[in-house]
Amino acid sequence: MIDSKSFFIKKLIAAFAAAAVFAVFAAGGLAGAEKTRDGVGMDISGFNSTTFSGDPVDGSIFAEAELTVINIWQRWCGPCWAEMPYFQQLHEYYSETPEADVRIWGALYYGDNPSTIQQAIDFVAEHGYTWSQMLMCDELLQVAAGGEDTEYVHIPQTLIVDRNGVVRAQVIGKVDSYEELAELVEYWLGVLGTEYSAGSGDVDGNGEVNVTDALLAMRCSMGIIEIADEAVLRGDMNFDGTITATDAILILREVLGVG
Questions:
Q1: H or E segment and range at residue 90
Q2: Pair 46, 59: CB distance under 8 Å
Q3: Confidence check: pLDDT of 5 > 60
Q4: Cα–Cα distance measured from residue 171 to residue 27, given in angstroms and rounded to the nearest whole number
Q5: 193 near 104, Cβ under 8 Å?
Q6: What is the mean pLDDT of residues 52-58?
Q7: Which domains, ranges and CATH numbers included, belong to the chain?
Q8: What is residue 171's DSSP assignment?
Q9: Which of 13, 17, 44, 31 is nearest to 163 (CA)?
Q10: In this structure, are residues 218 and 200 in contact, taking their beta carbons and an 8 Å threshold?
Q11: Rounded distance, CA 58 to CA 85, Å?
Q12: What distances in angstroms separate CA 110 from CA 45, 98, 137, one per listed residue?
């Protein structure tokens, strides 16, 4: 049983400073891409745009998935063409494993030349790319430009966005392989999964909170059993860094619907 606040503090730092962790992670991968944190932390949950078919799309898409990947590309961009098969492969993989709850979106940067929009639509259809596509909007443009002069935007870019619409990672430049793209997504799924489950009360991690979780928390608080660090994080309802009888009671109240 972990009875020190240091574990929780470390987890909290890892969760809310994940971009810094990613910088270390990325040093070993995505070698061909330039990394930046300029857009990391920006909230794009209020964006509004349209899909390639003309339907409206907005920030509500982020709540539909644990993690959203946005690939910003341009019709006449060689590096964009080179990496697009990787995004198709990623889309196909997560379409077959929806429990992972990952969505892929393309965002077409067309600058001041809207005539390239139809060219891009035709390009996507010709190559059989089936992940969702939308047009670039002001919010995404601000992220892509790092909050600076939007007249100079490096393309392509890949954004990792959490379910609250906050940009958690930004890769500027071409992704070199499917494996590197998949590792990036899996890494952030782990980070976000830890954040989302913190204080949920789901001690055994089976996807639901019930009396068993309250009993596990109580037995842990009494020193009868030891549980894994991740389970401590899930069962620590009052975020004090440890599991106590208070957490067990809070979980039970959650189960009973009284608090």
A1: helix 78-96
A2: yes
A3: no
A4: 12
A5: no
A6: 96
A7: 31-197 (3.40.30.10), 199-256 (1.10.1330.10)
A8: E
A9: 44
A10: no
A11: 25
A12: 22, 31, 10
Q: Which two tokens stand for residue 225?
A: 């059993």
Q: Sorting pLDDT into bands at 50, 70 and 90, what band is 198?
A: confident
Residue given tokens 């790319």 in the structure block:
129
pTM for the whole structure: 0.71
Return the structure tokens found at 48: 């509004």
Joined tokens for residue 131: 């992940």
**Sequence-ordered strand ranges (E) for 76-165:** 102-108, 132-135, 157-162
H helix or E strand, kind and range, residue 34: strand 34-35
C-alpha dihedral sign at 163, 168, 170, 175: negative
Burial 165-190 (b: 16+ CB within 10 A, else e): bebbbbbbbbbbebebbbbbbebbbe
**3-state secondary structure at position 217:** helix
Look at 149 and 145; give whichever has higher pLDDT. 145
